[in-house]
Each structure stands twice: as structure tokens, then as C-alpha cells.
Amino acid sequence: MKLNLKDIPRVETISKEDFIKHYFKPQKPVVIERFIEDWPAFHKWNLDYMKALAGDKIVPLYDDRPVDYNDGFNEPHAQMKMSEYVDLLQSEPTRYRIFLWNILKEIPELQNDFSYPDFGLKLMKGLPMLFFGGEDSYTFMHYDIDLANIFHFHFDGRKQCILFDQKQNDFLYKIPHSLITREDIDFANPNFEKWPALEKAEGWVCELSHGQVLYMPEGYWHYMRYITPGLSMSLRAIARNPKNLGKAVYNVFVMRALDNTMRRIKGQKWIEWKNEQAIVRTNRKNGLRV
User: Fold this and answer.
1) Is domain 4-285 classified as CATH 1.20.81.30?
2) 220, 142 Cβ separation under 8 angstroms
């Protein structure tokens, strides 16, 4: 048995008016296949280019180890030079990923390789972020703290993306006071005997290749798996839905502070309690044995 996933619609290119009408207003994802072929990045951006441009930069690396109460917010699991990291990506599978790497801060010259597309939304120009991953590395299923509209531009290699909207929360084993689901769920090949509520979840799936753009609507859950080594860039626009804006403010100023406080007070017991509650609450909402 597989997850109940529909293919994300695909278009070659799209006008601002059609994007707003068919995807932004109904809050549906879309893959745009040939939108950035006039960017220098389309012809230049690959792992070798990043190695040549930023080889001496020390980069933060993350893997798929479970959350530990000792880990600070977005604290990296390892560091190495970009040149060494690219060599690792190209030589063998690795779980190490780079995420939320700010182009403007780390490699300012990269901003000459792309522009900010006019999708009819005001993109946040201070936050272009790069993501890198090795073969079969993946992110946990999560949604972003600010519930932004996200445009995810992929370069070099292939990547699988699985999305769910916020209406699927009751089926995903969401961790309370957090932005992730249970980390031991393999969304590429889920065990429905262990996670039976997932059978009710309805989501979306696509595979991205070089130069393609994925639009993820506000607050969408996303799981990203690198089929081959590659890199991506995300541009974002603030949530427009007042309910989502309210959730974003709560997440940033209340939820994160509460979670950090409880980690300091309870330590690993707080993490274990949240993981257990993800099962208890999901099963209760779906009439399953608790």
C-alpha cells in the first residue's frame, strides 16, 4: 500500500494572472517547468560551480538523526568546507544536507545569477535560501514556521517532493508544539500497520529536475528526498491568509519559546512526551486504539 498522493499539476510556463487565479487563490501546488531558462543560474548552477565559487566556505551540515533536547534551534550536526562537501556528495551517498543557507550573506555574487520573478506576490528579497543534499538524503516531513508561500527552484539532479495541506494534520502524527511529524515515519515507504492514520491522508507528489520550480502554498507540509545529489533555492512570500498569519506569529513568538523553555526544564523527557502524544492524539482523532 502507498500514500494517497496525486501528481502535482505541471505547466511549461505561466502568466502572473493565471498563477494567481489557478494556484495562489485556491492554494494549490504547481510545478513550472521552463520559467527560469533566461537566468544565468539555469546554465551555471550545479555542484561544481558552487565548489569553485565557495570552496573555502565552512558550511553547516545536518542529517536525519532524531531531535535531541541538547540541540539548539537549527544547530548543525557537522561542518566542513564546501569543496569537501561537494566531493562527498559526488563520491558516495551521504545523509548530510545544507538547508536555509542565506545566499546574500554567504555568497553575495550569486544574486547576479537570478532575479525575483513576478508571480503577483511580494517576494522577500532578503531571504533567498540554498539547500543541498546527497543521494537518498531527505528532510523530515515539516512545514515552515512562518507558513509562507514558497517557490522552490531546483538545480542539478533530481528531487522527490511530497506535500500535504494543513487539513491533513489529524492523519500525519504531528508532534505537538512543533512543526514536524514523527521522525521515524518513512514517507517514501510508510509502514501503515505502525502508522494506520496515514491511510486517510491525501497529498501531492512530484519529481523536480534542473530548472524546474515548485510552488508550495501557505503552510504546506513538505518532505524532500534527493534522488541524486543536487541543490535548490527557495524564495518566499509572506502568508496572506489572516489565519495563517496568526499561526505564524504564534509559532515565532509563543510556540518556539515554549518548546525551548520545556527542553531546558524537562530535557529529553519533553521530547519523548511529545513523540508519544503524536501517536495518542492522532489515534484518538481517528478512532484508533490509543
Assistant:
1) no
2) no
